[in-house]
Every structure is written in structure tokens, then in C-alpha cells.
Amino acid sequence: MAQVLDRPPVRPVVEAPTAGRRTGGRLTLPTLLALTAIVTIVPFAAMVLVAFAPPSGRTFPDALNPANFTLENFSKVLSSSDIPRWTVNSLLYSLVSVACVLLFASMAGYAFAKKKFPGREIMFWAFLATLMVPFQATLIPSYILVAKLDWVDSYWGLIVPTLANSQAVFLMRQFIMQLPDELFEAAEIDGAPEWRIFTMIVLPLVRPVLATLGIFVFLWHWNDFLWPLVIGQSGKMQTLTVGLATLQGQAVPINQLMAGATITVVPSLLVFGLLQRYLTDSIAMSGLKA
Amino acid sequence: MGLLFVAPMLVLFLLFRFLPAIGAFFLSLTDYRISGKWDFIALDNYTRLLSDKVFHEALLVTITYTVIFVPLTVLLSLGTAVLLHQVVWKRGFFRGVFFLPYVTSIVLAAVIWKWIYDAQDGLLNAVLGLVSIGPIDFLSQSGTVLPSIAVTSAWKGFGYSMLILLAGLQAVPKSYLEAAMIDGASTWQRFRYVTLPQLRPVLFFVLVIETIGAFQVFDAMYVMTGGGPVRSSYSLVYFLYDSGFKYFDFGYASAIGLVLFLIVLIVSLVQRRLVGRDD
User: Fold this and answer.
1) For chain B, how many structural domains are there in total?
2) Is position B2 within any domain?
3) How large is the average pLDDT for residues A171-189?
4) Which label site among A64, A107, B55, B210 has the fewest CB atoms less than 10 Å from its CB?
5) How many whole angstroms separate alpha carbon A206 and alpha carbon A106?
6) Nearest residue of A to residue B114, measured between CA atoms
7) What parts of the sequence cross the membrane (chain A) (predicted)?
8) Using CA atoms, how far apart are residues B39 and B100, in angstroms rounded to an integer?
């Protein structure tokens, strides 16, 4: 999968001039690239600087002096808000969803790819068709349904409805279709029970896709806003992302707000730092959208 | 046996995708209130929408936002993709930097940028102050609020389209470009007449994805402006959210959802038409 992006650059490899080395005043492409990168990174840098800056005085340009850095904003925002509880909610929402979506989507993907059963085609296309319906269009009926189940303001209501993930099913099916039939047929002839074929043959083979899909499902849920906003109505049931918006609305001092923002972004940054390759390659290959 | 493997996902889909999709249609024909009481009112919600000034404004805001956001984000992603494609120097590093905002939430982006735009304390006005401009209250003026939000969303999201376009650029056959070079085409001519036509399907995909996304804008507005000033950043989804969860007018909110669905559907169908003609 990775070859397309990893193949040698199209252009002949000439040692490109390092940014700033040219003094002619002509804006070279590497310089332009570096400038764009700086502009992209500035908001993050500013967030972190303000989070560590002392809370007194104007926030800019005082924030730039590293001699004054303090953890005060973090301790204040942690003690004055529900951030610890929100973090637990976000972790539960994301990790439970990842586990369930990976399991159910690979089961469904395997069946759609390799099993024959009545209604298979029409069912698969019906799954795909739901991709066309924007989530917001079904927000109200989904909410009413969850209310009827008495799941509002609960983990059930938060997690279960978001497990119906057609992109995940589609991706798993496409991948499993490429696996040779003989692998499964041999096991079937040997009389292996279906569930063992799935756990012993299918799951190990789909590990690379599971990794990629897992990252995406994690990010979808960690960054999700509208559904947790609607379902987690009490402060205790909010996720970190919703909680951050709540903090913003409460006129929390800017340093504490940025400290809170920095906390919410840590897991995404960890995922990004460790697994960037998986993410970028799979987007380029499949158009998967987080 | 296959059915057993599909069963868990199937149940989830039937309950939480198909049922709400059908439900949305039927709800939009009722005056369903929070008490659970409802009457069938046929198309009343839709006729009410047609004459609702707030709906007209929200639709206009959404379209204006889309018209600003889509070209902005497509140019930004195309520009960075071309830069990354041309410059070999530290390509992986720069690709990572441009992609970084994409893994964060739009809420985080909105919180950071709300501060950046702040008239008193904000980073942007501090920079503008150095060249004696401003301060400008970006989020409190109807003229600047939508472009400001569009910049925030573009910053957050351009990394995705950039990766798609970069893959597209790398798939352009080298021989075409070499042939053009031998024929004496300049860099710009090669880009305009060789690369761009080859890139068209990918560019179109990006355009459609971003347009559909733009029509669903909500999070950034909820966090940055609350829809203001005076509803000048009050989008369709915001209107849907308020109708449902502020006024508990579930039937009406469902009708707004159906309008949104129709818009997305039309955009997708137009894409299929145009790309289909391409092949």
C-alpha cells in the first residue's frame, strides 16, 4: 500500500537550496514551503505558549518569554473544571468505539467479501447508501430514539448509535476481498468452525487495516462534537471536546482555556506522532476521511 | 452463516441509521413536540420554511460560507501539494506539519483562532499592530466573520485534500511532462496543460468533498460566534440544532435536516454527472 507514496521523487534529485541560504531576495520554493509550514504551526505554538505563560498581564507578547513559564494554568483549569471526568468520558467513548467498530466491521466485512447469503448484495449497497445521508439530517430522529431507550446522558446513548459505521464495513470488505479464497476453503474442508476461521485466519490477516481503521475511528470519536453535545447534557457526561467548548463559553481566563485546549490535543498528537505514516498513506490510497 | 457475521452491524444499522433516516422523513411531516405528542401536518413544516426569514438567512449564510471556504481550501491544498511535489527537501517533515491540524478537532481550532482574532489580546491584531493596522474585531463584524471562520476551517482541514492531491500529482505520468519539456513548454505551461488536466478527477473529488463538508458547517460557528453578530454566521445546521434543542420543535428541525440532505444529494449527483462525462 505504501509504495505509491514511498517511491522515489519524480524530479531528479538535485540538492535543493536550504531555506534562507539564498540571499538574492528571490522567493525560492523551499523558502515558500518553510514559510507556509511556519504559518501552519504558529496557532499550535501560540496555544502552548499561552498555556504555559504566567496568568498576569497582557497575554501577548509576554507569553513569548520562556523565563516566566508556569504550570499554574494547568493546575487551575484541572481543579476548577470537570476535565478529569471529561477525559475519562472521551477515552471511554473513543476506545470502546474503536474496539466494537473493529470487531463488528471486520465480521461484516468478512461476510460481505467471502460468504454467500441471501440479500448480501442489496444489504451491502444499503449500507453504502447511508454514507450519502449527512449525520445532521438524522440528528433529531436519532436523538428521539435514544430518548425513547432512556439513554440520554448515558454512555449507552453516547457510544452505541455511533457504532454503525459504513466506512469501516466498506474498507474491511474491500481488503478481505483481495485475500485468496483458498485460505478459507482449506480451513472449511478441515471442518474448522466458522468462528475459529474468523479469529485464527481472518483477524491476523487484516491486522494492517485494523491498525489504520483503528486510528481513524479513534480520531472520529475523540474529535466528535455534535453527537456528544446533544447526548451528554449534564456536565458530567460531556466529552473533552464538548467540555472545551463549554470552557470557552464560561469566560475562563485565556491562559487556562489554552491549558485546557493543550490537554485535549495530547492524544491526537500522540496518535499523529506515532502513526502518521499509517494515516497519511491510507488517505492517499483510499480517501478515508477522519 | 454469513448472516450471523453481519448480524451485529446489521442490527446497529437498522436501528441507528435506517430507522432515523426513515424517521426523519416522517417526523418532518408532523409537529412532534418534546412531550411526544404529535399531529400529522403534511407539508406545513416545508411551507413554513419557505416563508421563514431565519431559514432564508441561514441558507444564505451557508452558501456564502461555502463560496468562501471551498476555493480557499482547495487553493491552499493544491498550493501546498504542488510545493511538496516540487521540493524534495524534507518532504516527509513538511507533509507532517501541514497534516497536523487535521488530526485535531474543529472545536480546538475554533478555540485557538477565536483568541487569535481577538480585538484586545489576539495574536493577529498584535501582528497587525506592528504595522499600525487595526485593531480589527474580526468576529464581531458581519463583513469579516464568515471569512475568518472559513480561514479557521481551512487551516484545520486542508491537510486532507492536500494528501489526496499530492497522490494525484504523483500519479501524473512522467513521460507526459518530459515530452512537454522537450517541446519547450515552460514550467507554468507544463502545469497548466499537462498536470492540471491529468489532475481533474482528483481535483473534482476534493471539490465535492469540501463542498459537502462546507454545507454542514456548525462546530466552528457554535464555538467562535454563537451564530453572531446578529445571525451573520448562523448556518443551516445551527438553525437545525436550535430548532431541535433550543425550541424543541422536532418536526421542523427534521424538515431542515431533509433540506440539508437534498443539498448534499444534489452536489453528489452533479459530481457523478460531471465526472462521468470525463471518462
Assistant:
1) 1
2) no
3) 87
4) A64
5) 8
6) A248
7) 31-53, 91-112, 124-144, 156-176, 197-220, 257-275
8) 49
